[in-house]
Amino acid sequence: MVSHSSNGRKHARRAAQGTSERRSTRNPAARHYRGGNHRARGGKGPKARGRSRHLILKWILGLIALCLAAGIGLFAYLYATTEVPAPEKVAMASNTTVYFSDGTTEMGTFSEQNREIIDCAVLPDYVGNAIVASENRSFYTDRGIDLQGIARALVNNVTKGTRQGGSTITQQYAERYYLGETTSYTGKLHEAILALKIAQSQDKSQVLCNYMNTIYLGRGAYGIQAAAQAYFNKDAKDLTVSEAAMIAGIIPAPSTWDPAQNPKMAQQRFHRVISIMKEDGYITAKEASDASTMPTTVENTQQDMYKGPNGYLLQMVRDELVNSKAFTKDDLDTGGYRIVTTIDKSKQDLMQQVVSPASNGMQGVVPEGMQFGAMSVNPKDGSIISLYAGDDYLTKQLNNATQAQYEVGSTMKAFALMGAVQDKVSLNTIFNGNSKRTYPGIAGTVSNVGGANLGYINLYKATAQSSNTVFMDLQTKLGTKKIAELAREAGVQSTSLDGSEPYTVLGNNALTVRDMTWAYSTIANQGNKPTLHIVASVKDVHNKDLYQAPTSTTKVFEANDANLVTKALTGVVQSGTATEARSIGHTIAGKTGTSNNMYAASFVGYTPSVVSTFAMWYPDANGNPQEIPSFGRWTGHSDYPVHLFTQYMTQALAGTANESFPTAKDNGKVGGSDGTWGTGSKSSSKRYYSSSGSQDAYTQDQSTDSAQSGQSSESGAGTGGTGSGSGTGTGSGSTGECTTNPSAAGCTSSGSGSGSNGTGSGSNDTGGTGSSGSGSNGTQGDVPENTPSDPSTNPEQTPGVME
Questions:
Q1: Is the pLDDT of residue 800 over 50?
Q2: How far apart are alpha carbons 528 and 541 in whole angstroms?
Q3: 225 Cβ contact list (under 8 Å, min separation 6)
Q4: Rounded CA separation 774/760 (Å)
Q5: Residues contacting 163, CB < 8 A, separation 6+
Q6: What is the dihedral sign for C-alpha 65, 67, 70, 71?
Q7: Would the CATH topology of 118-290 be identical to that of 384-652?
Q8: pLDDT confidence band for 541 (50 / 70 / 90)
């Protein structure tokens, strides 16, 4: 048992040691048992409550002090770390203008905004003063921020739950052109700090000028210059006092207060600005009176720069420069560059007029949904002269010249010809040009169009007549992958051409107009591959050169090999499937192409200085290919693309001298170096063709003097008569257009022979017989490709039957 005396001693000992008695924090029962003051636990006295309130107040004051310190610290940090961006990078961003090849005719502009930066020194003082009167009367005296305006906006923000600005011109400038629009408190703090720094680092005239050059003023116009053009069709330097006041008055809501949309509000704002300008001494009372009539604005003609055919050109320019890695999209939109393209304005207009059914009078004749694509380039440097991509970029963004694909048909045969020439195969090598032939690895038979039996012909004639069976012989020797490789080396970019198609040489692959134009440009340029491009040069706002087009070429084929291919391709125009192009009056080489099932038709033709491709195809509503129907006097073959080519090139080459192709030496061997190409040497029982210069002439085996008939073919070979005696043989062939109009230019042709006694004559496809001597063959008549001699004969739709 613990005595009271011992407890007293303990208390005394603790007091002497300076310690207090430890109080129990256990439950009340325990404290009561140990002598705790039970009454005291029931509540707190006045002193205790006072101490609690004092403690809370200290906490609140401490928290406020902490927040203030943090705010001051944050402000100090932001102020110290905030840098004013260079005006050139933001406020001075300007439209990039794109020109046609003449460097003066505008094609369009690139911009995030329709903005043109000007030197404010050229502006009358009242232009800037009108904006000051409208937006910030204290501009010339404030420090970049308006504390009263900020306080007023803060009250409204708190009481009305809205976000108001209370911004000065400097703050608006900082917000919109350095920060982007902001309504948050932290954003406004950053804006105020930046405005203070701008006010310290830039004088008032500089701030006002940058503001005027970049503020949005409606009608898609950013800056006073663009606005002057949009509202009054004049430069900003020519604005009157009233015009400047009208523009300044609608700054808070330019689209809503546009005089064309809300004339009442626009007029109220206009009179307000005039009144303030007079009150603040910017204009005299007389000037205010003279300017008191609301000016009349022009019609709002704002439209999308990409509307119409130029939209395709502008997008090609953007893509080419961005893909070059020399520029970013932002660079083009804000750099204020001057871009000159390779597009010839007059030839571009001509291309559009020739190809577009909406322009060439064929609307309503051409089936709705028919697609056309075209491109014309200079093969020597790769510059694109003109193109047809479509009628309106905003309606259809797919570019028919560079993106849309079509089956290229027999235009692929040029690369098989190149392969044969590279393997030292003479173009005089004889091949079997008859129809219904079989080939290793090919299911079924292959025929020429119309099932034509062209006989035993050399590669000149096989090219002119576009013999499927002869070129399948070439593919058998070369392989599909080799032909595809040669086409890619020449310029085909589409990855779909990989040689996996069994009919690669017949053009089953879907490629683009640009692919074929590029590849043929390499052949036209004697084996030197150019880089196709649409941009000629780029200069900055100071006229400094930033970019020059890649005009150099790369040698991919031997010059003589390319020239031999060209030599063969001239026969297509002179006596083959594209004879309408003879009327151009220039030496032309080229190749027609019609896909299987008549899904697409095209023609690639060229001179030494211009390569042009014209193509058409007829997709269904889902984009799947379907047969091209006949329209007007045109069949679904390449006669219409040849016609478009002829129309365009006749005018594009008007007034220019005819250019001859370089000479080429056929240094190959008949049958190839190994003697396995074609049928080998000529046989006395077979007809064959030989070449004379760039033209090939039909030659009759001299071991027989019997009359021979001209073989039916897609080009309608009409031969003159043979016989003995003195006389002439004439031949003519006509189908297609010539059937209904035999007197049309180029529908008949003739040849002659000499001997003694007798005459020979022939018409259509069979020559007559004379009495003695021999007559030479007549020149071929103009029968469009793919047209059988017998109009009742339909082309066989077996695999590989295409032109």
A1: no
A2: 36
A3: 116, 117, 118, 213, 235, 236
A4: 9
A5: 157, 183, 184
A6: negative
A7: no
A8: confident
3-class state of residue 537 by DSSP: strand
Q: Which of 127, 315, 155 is nearest to 212 (CA)?
A: 127
When pLDDT is averaged across residues 305-327 and rounded to a whole number, the result is 95
User: What's the chain's Rg over C-alpha atoms?
Assistant: 43
pTM above 0.70, yes or no: no
Confirm if 754 and 724 have CB atoms less than 8 A apart.
Answer: no
Q: Which residue has the tokens 């007034």?
A: 655
Quick one: tokens of 73? 């610290």
Exposure letters 439-463 (e unless 16+ CB within 10 A, then b): beebeebbbbbbbbbbbbbbbbbbb
Structure tokens at 548: 């020059």
29 near 36, Cβ under 8 Å? no
Fold entry, domain 118-290: Penicillin binding protein transpeptidase fold (1.10.3810)
Beta pairing partners, 59: none
H-assigned helices in 423-467: 459-464
Closest CA to 131 of 243, 258, 268, 266: 243
Owner of token pair 């694509």:
373
pLDDT tens across 558-595, in order? 999 999 999 999 999 999 999 999 999 999 999 999 99
Q: Both tokens of residue 729? A: 């043989």
Report the CATH architecture of 384-652: 3-Layer(aba) Sandwich (3.40)
Q: Return the H-helix or E-strand segment holding 316.
A: helix 310-323
Compute the average pLDDT of residues 603-622.
Answer: 97
Q: Give me 786's structure tokens.
A: 């793919």
Phi and psi torsions of 113, nearest 5°: -145, 155
The domain ranges of the chain are: 118-290, 384-652, 716-783
* Paired sense of beta strands 535-539 and 456-458, if any: unpaired
Do the beta carbons of residue 92 and residue 335 sit within 8 Å? no
